[in-house]
Amino acid sequence: MTRRWLANGLALAVLWLFVRGVDPTPLPSGLVVIAEELVIGLLVGLPTAFALRAFYADEFAVRPSLRVVPYAARYIAVFVRELLTANVDVAYRVLAPSMPIEPDVVAVPLRVESDAAITTIANSITLTPGTLTMDHDAETNTLYVHAINCQDHASVVAPIRTWEDYALVIFEGRDPSTPVPGPDPGQPSADGGTPGAAANGGESDGE
Q1: Which residues contact 159 (CB under 8 A, 6 or more apart)?
Q2: Fewest CB atoms within 10 A around its CB: which of 17, 21, 56, 69?
Q3: Distance between CA atoms of 128 and 12, rounded to whole angstroms?
Q4: Quick one: which of 7, 3, 159, 181 has its CA closest to 83?
C-alpha cells in the first residue's frame, strides 16, 4: 500500500512541468531546467497534497493502479485519434459548398457509474470537434450528446463506447463486456431505425 497524498503530490509535480511548458532541448541544459522545475513542483505539490489528504483515502493499492495503465494509454490513444479525425471531418463539412451537416441529439445510456468516469467521458465528447455533451440524466444514467452529423448514429456512439470500455476498467475495475442498459442507440432496432437515437424523437434539425 502507498500513501495517497504522496502519489498525488508526485502527480502535481509532473503536472507543474506541463503547466510551465518546459522544453527539454537543448541538451544537457534542458534536463537541468526540467530538474529545477520538478523540484519546484515537488515543493508545491507535496505540501498541497498533504494539506488536502483528508479529502481522499489514506492509502491505495499500487498493483491495481498499475494494472489500469495500459487501459489509460489506450483511452488516450483513441481520444487523440478521434480528435484528429474529427477536426478534419468538421473542417470538410464547414468548407464543403453543400454543407453536409445533419445535427441531432443522441441519448447514450452508460454502463459506468462513478462520477469520475462519467465526467471523463463527457469531457472527452465535448473536447472532440463536432460533438457536445449537453446533459447527464442521473436517474437513467444517460448522456445527451449533440452531434453536427447524425446520419449514422452508430458512428457517433462508437467512440463513446470504446472510451467507456476502458473507463470501466480504469475507474471501476469492471469488465468491459458489461452489457449496455436498455436499447443502445448505436445498434439498429428491429424496424430498421435507431432506438433511443434522439431526445427530440429522432427528427434531425438539419432536415
Answers
A1: 78, 82, 128
A2: 21
A3: 25
A4: 159
Statement: the pTM of the whole predicted model exceeds 0.70: no
pLDDT tens-digit series, residues 91-103: 888 888 888 888 9
Question: Which grid coordinates are listed for 59?
Answer: 492509502
DSSP class per residue in 91-157: HHHHHSTT---B-EEEEEE-S--SHHHHHHHHHHHHHSTTEEEEEEETTTTEEEEEESB-S-HHHHH
CB 84 within 8 A of CB 130: no
Angle between helices 29-51 and 4-20 (to 10 degrees): 140
List the end-to-end C-alpha distance of the chain, in Å, as a whole number.
Answer: 57
The single residue listed with the C-alpha cell 520538478 is: 38
Q: How far apart are CA 20 and CA 33, in angstroms?
A: 11
CA atoms of 130 and 86, how far apart (whole Å): 7
Question: Which residue type does 139 have?
Answer: E
Read off the pLDDT of residues 164-184 as tens digits, 9 standing for 90 and up.
999 999 888 888 888 887 777
Amino acid at 164: E
The upper half-sphere exposure of residue 117, i.e. CA atoms within 13 Å in the direction of its Cβ, equals 22
Residues in the chain: 207
The whole-angstrom separation of Cα 132 and Cα 140 is 19
> Cis ω on the peptide bond leading into residue 28 (within 30° of 0)?
yes
Residue 145 to residue 104: CA distance in whole angstroms? 8
